[in-house]
Design a protein that fits this description.
The chain has 289 residues and is an alpha/beta fold. It has helices at 10-21, 37-41, 54-61, 82-98, 120-130, 152-158, 177-188, 208-219, 233-239, 246-257, 276-285, and strands spanning 2-4, 26-30, 45-48, 66-69, 103-106, 136-141, 143-144, 160-163, 174-175, 195-201, 224-227, 270-271.
Length: 289
């Protein structure tokens, strides 16, 4: 039995669909029963559990051949990341009690960065799960190409892609979420001991200019990049409702300055199959990649 948290998201959903297509048994962990209906119809067992509920997670993980841990994202965390710590405490307790045969944890590029930033929440999760002592695979994907969803309206309506990733011609390690789910499905079925770290990016690196060109091809219009000035970020993020924007700002600085990066610049990273054009086309149409 493969137990999947975060199954209602893009990565967890693709992982589950891939396993089901291969005839593998899947237990879907969902927060409420209404979200489990679709997965039950596809043949999944359903386990009701919130990530902060250790007892419910223990029941969900019990009897698992492998558990997939997909922590919820907190984009405006309180100082010290208490929201992430609450989930970590629950997951660790459940893993210690249920003792699945092995664990795959979705982390991120930058989890090994030496400077504090928004992705440090994943560093905390990695470190805590590693101490449990179960066979552990940590999957660190690059920047999700699907983050470009936020650019669809601007690209379509004004022909402008407002980019926090800078400079506009710098290629960044990005990956499609379907590639992440597919690779996770391969990894979770393997046998291994100890801890291993797998880095994952797309078939080629992608610059903001590349994204604009992809939007332009899909929309049949010229789309240009307009970098968002660094000195406006804090005011902008606070105007959007953020209370503690510094971790997000630090993360963006890390990508732009190069201290959030894969080891050896991705020389040993697994390479995905899906390019930016396919993802952008799906985002614009509202369909699947």
């Amino acid at each position: 039995m493969y137990v999947i948290t975060g199954i209602t998201g893009k990565v967890g959903g693709e992982l589950a669909r891939t396993l089901l297509a291969q005839g593998q048994p899947v237990r879907a962990v969902v927060r409420d029963e209404s979200k489990g209906g679709t997965w039950a119809a596809l043949g999944c067992q359903i386990a009701l559990a919130e990530m902060e509920n250790a007892a419910a997670l223990t029941r969900a993980f019990t009897g698992a051949r492998a558990a997939f841990i997909l922590p919820p994202s907190e984009f405006d965390p309180e100082p010290g990341y208490p929201e992430a710590q609450s989930v970590i405490n629950s997951v660790v307790s459940a893993l210690k009690s249920a003792k699945p045969d092995r664990v795959v944890c979705l982390s991120t590029i930058g989890a090994d960065a030496s400077r504090d930033n928004l992705l440090s929440q994943r560093t905390m999760m990695e470190d805590a799960i590693a101490k449990v002592g179960l066979p552990l695979t940590i999957l660190r994907p690059g920047w999700f190409i699907e983050n470009s969803l936020w650019d669809v309206a601007s690209a379509r309506d004004t022909g402008v892609l407002h980019s926090f990733l800078q400079p506009a011609d710098k290629p960044f390690p990005m990956v499609a979420t379907r590639d992440v789910g597919r690779v996770a499905a391969d990894l979770i079925q393997e046998n291994w001991s100890g801890k291993r770290i797998i880095e994952l990016e797309g078939p080629r690196r992608i610059s903001p200019n590349d994204l604009a060109i992809a939007f332009g091809r899909v929309l049949s219009k010229v789309v240009r990049v307009e970098p968002v000035p660094r000195d406006t970020w804090e005011k902008l993020f606070r105007s959007q409702g953020m209370k503690n924007p510094q971790p997000r700002i630090s993360m963006l600085d890390g990508f732009n300055e190069g201290w959030i990066e894969f080891k050896d610049y991705g020389a040993n990273a697994v390479k995905g199959r899906i390019d930016a054009d396919a993802v952008i086309a799906a985002l614009v149409s509202g369909g699947k990649t």
